[in-house]
User: Which sequence fits this backbone?
């Protein structure tokens, strides 16, 4: 089993995301993370799906996704074939702030993006390993909430969406 | 020329524009405006009122399979729509082109649990090739145009169009534009020249090549191309369940049927060929048995339209993606003319073994009780060459398929992939309504017929001259066979106390006869086939007979058993 990023270029129609996720559900495969957004072409959406499966399975998944009528193109890459990033937010109680925490924030290049009377929110962008590492450290500081985004990614391959759309 | 009309009229005018001639359906609240519109167009488009929506969709499937056209089905929201689901799944897995239109509650009520509201988009999604909900009158015609195009093009399938009531009653412009293409959907691919050359080289150097053909040949209208290919190549060829009819069984290359209850030689020799050429078939598990021991010795050539089928179950040495009508034509041009007498003789030798061990028992039994096989055997003698055989699911389906003599294409209608009991009676009705003059023989078991027996009413009303042959063993026979073989003869809930089927058929005004003696069988079948109108023939068969050969679940094709 390996981690793959599946890119899906689609029309922006209601229900399409459902049709795509059904393909995973039916085979009992868990989606690690999913993000959907507009592409730079109006009316064309891109969905990025992170999944841990065998190569054989990822090929089947991509074939089945591409078979969906309103999917324009689907393809997959291993981690080495994509540039990707994730964003994590950490909410901490102000009462626990101390010098040790300041050191952790500095060392991890995290940012404080909100400071209220009772809590602060840290932001860290980076791969899962990195954001998870910070999470572990912050557990000693009474972390209140943690949220991580799905992967946003672009392929290293020099192909553009235009070549699929037209 | 643009004119304003009601959405409901747009629905009907769009269907007429798509050359739909016949709709199978059932009215109800949310689809009533469309039914009202149908009243005005009865001279241009016919509608058949079935007795249940499941009957409507199976009838539309039967119609589509025989005509090659898109089957059309109409139902109301809620229960009307959910009753279509089995048929949608059946059509989708068997690649049958279908457009189903369902009414839906008014757009402002969506998501409120309104009366007869069901989330049809969500429910039908996994069972359709494409579905759409139309909430505005101006979107009706484009949705129907796209729906018909998707249903019939590429690998055909089931389409559902859910139309809210407000869209049906609002007024809009009608200016029908058929759909021919759109950017996310590839229907035709050019055949790859290198792949084709590689395939030809494999075929030309093979010493034991073997062709497996499926329904793709029929859907691609490539029956002639398959015959030409086999005529020149001299390669033995076997059929899948749904491929039957694509090649006449009288063709010298034809060696029989594949799969769990197919013929002995075609299954066994799959593991002895050196090049396997799969044409328009998808290596279903009922064909392959244990995949890890399936044709491992062979180089595999897969001629297939659907890219998702390539390497799905069996890894292809060479995949020729595209329409098999094109790929077969191009292959025939570049292969050498050959014969394989020794290889062919192997098929014929094993065929004889099957004859002695199985066929004799089935067709010329020495026991008192009638066999299903001898019924089909006599039907063969009297049927027309282009007679359509419609079967349900179970023992009778396998026996009828094994012994029916397929001579022409589009002569078989059965539920292959989904195995839907209750399919046959309505499907036969639909097949018959495509052409009243064609012989349509519906072979069905006592279990399956009772799942949709209400469609006798539709047969009565339409006077469709379907010949219904009920093979009655008072059992759910196939399940009973498995209980006998794999569950220690524990016949758990498989025996049936049946009604008087003859009285039942007669109550519907259908001429009926019951036969239980061998001596009466031939005359009864003759009487049935010459009868002008629907006919119900009940044949009481041996209670505990089994279907062989058989590849048991988890076994390899070479472990096919004769008893």
Assistant:
């Amino acid at each position: 089993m390996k981690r793959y990023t599946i890119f899906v270029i689609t029309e922006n129609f209601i229900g399409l995301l459902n049709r795509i996720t059904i393909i995973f559900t039916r085979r009992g495969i868990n989606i690690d993370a999913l993000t959907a957004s507009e592409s730079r072409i109006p009316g064309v959406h891109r969905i990025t799906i992170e999944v841990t499966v065998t190569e054989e399975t990822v090929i089947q998944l991509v074939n089945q996704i591409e078979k969906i009528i309103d999917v324009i193109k689907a393809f997959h890459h291993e981690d080495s074939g994509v540039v990707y990033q994730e964003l994590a937010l950490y909410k901490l109680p102000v009462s626990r702030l101390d010098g040790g925490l300041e050191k952790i924030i500095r060392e991890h290049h995290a940012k404080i993006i909100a400071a209220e009377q009772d809590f602060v929110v840290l932001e860290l962008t980076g791969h899962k390993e990195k954001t998870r590492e910070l999470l572990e450290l912050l557990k000693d500081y009474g972390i209140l909430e943690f949220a991580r985004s799905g992967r946003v990614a672009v392929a290293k391959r020099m192909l553009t969406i235009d070549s699929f759309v037209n | 020329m643009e004119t304003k009309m009601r959405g409901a009229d747009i629905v009907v005018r769009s269907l007429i524009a798509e050359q739909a001639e016949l709709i199978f359906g059932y009215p109800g609240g949310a689809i009533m405006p469309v039914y009202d519109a149908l009243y005005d167009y009865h001279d241009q488009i016919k509608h058949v009122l079935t007795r249940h929506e499941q009957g409507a969709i199976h009838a539309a499937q039967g119609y589509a399979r025989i005509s090659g056209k898109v089957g059309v089905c109409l139902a109301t929201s809620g229960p009307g729509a959910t009753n279509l689901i089995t048929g949608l799944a059946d059509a989708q897995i068997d690649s049958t082109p279908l457009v189903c239109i369902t009414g839906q509650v008014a757009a402002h009520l969506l998501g409120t649990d309104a009366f007869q509201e069901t989330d049809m988009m969500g429910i039908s999604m996994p069972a359709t090739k494409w579905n759409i909900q139309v909430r505005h009158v101006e979107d009706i015609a484009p949705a129907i145009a796209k729906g018909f195009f998707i249903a019939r093009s590429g690998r055909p399938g089931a389409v559902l169009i859910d139309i809210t009531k407000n869209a049906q009653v609002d007024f809009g412009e009608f200016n029908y534009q058929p759909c021919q293409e759109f950017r996310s959907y590839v229907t035709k691919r050019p055949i790859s020249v290198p792949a084709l050359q590689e395939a030809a080289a494999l075929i030309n150097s093979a010493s034991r090549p073997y062709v497996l053909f499926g329904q793709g040949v029929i859907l691609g209208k490539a029956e002639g191309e398959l015959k030409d290919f086999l005529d020149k190549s001299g390669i033995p060829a076997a059929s899948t369940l749904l491929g039957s009819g694509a090649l006449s069984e009288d063709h010298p290359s034809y060696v029989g049927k594949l799969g769990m209850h197919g013929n002995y030689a075609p299954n066994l020799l799959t593991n002895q060929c050196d090049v396997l050429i799969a044409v328009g078939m998808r290596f279903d598990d009922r064909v392959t048995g244990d995949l890890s021991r399936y044709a491992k010795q062979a180089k595999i050539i897969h001629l297939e339209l659907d890219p998702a089928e390539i390497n799905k179950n069996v890894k292809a040495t060479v995949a020729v993606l595209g329409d098999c009508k094109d790929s077969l034509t191009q292959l025939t041009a570049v292969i050498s003319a050959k014969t394989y007498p020794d290889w062919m003789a192997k098929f014929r030798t094993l065929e004889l073994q099957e004859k002695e061990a199985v066929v004799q028992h089935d067709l010329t039994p020495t026991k008192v009780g009638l066999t299903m096989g001898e019924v089909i055997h006599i039907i063969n003698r009297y049927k027309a060459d282009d007679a359509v055989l419609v079967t349900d699911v179970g023992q009778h389906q396998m026996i009828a398929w094994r012994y029916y003599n397929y001579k022409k294409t589009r002569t078989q209608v059965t539920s292959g992939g989904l195995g839907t009991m209750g399919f046959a009676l309505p499907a036969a009705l639909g097949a018959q309504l495509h052409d009243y003059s064609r012989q349509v023989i519906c072979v069905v078991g006592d279990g399956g017929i009772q799942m949709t027996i209400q469609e006798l009413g539709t047969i009565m009303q339409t006077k469709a001259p379907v010949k219904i042959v009920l093979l009655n063993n008072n059992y759910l026979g196939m399940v009973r066979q498995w209980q006998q073989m794999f569950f220690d003869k524990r016949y758990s809930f498989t025996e049936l106390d049946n009604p008087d089927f003859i009285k039942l058929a007669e109550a519907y005004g259908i001429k009926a006869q019951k036969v239980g003696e061998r001596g009466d069988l031939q005359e009864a079948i003759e009487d049935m086939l010459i009868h002008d109108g629907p006919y119900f023939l009940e044949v009481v068969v041996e209670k505990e007979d089994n279907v062989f050969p058989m590849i048991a679940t988890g076994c390899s094709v070479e472990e096919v058993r004769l008893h």
Q: What stands out?
A: Chain A is about 30% helix and 40% strand. Chain A has two domains: 2-82+153-165, 85-148. Chain A touches chain B through 20 residues (CB under 8 Å). The mean pLDDT of chain A is 93.
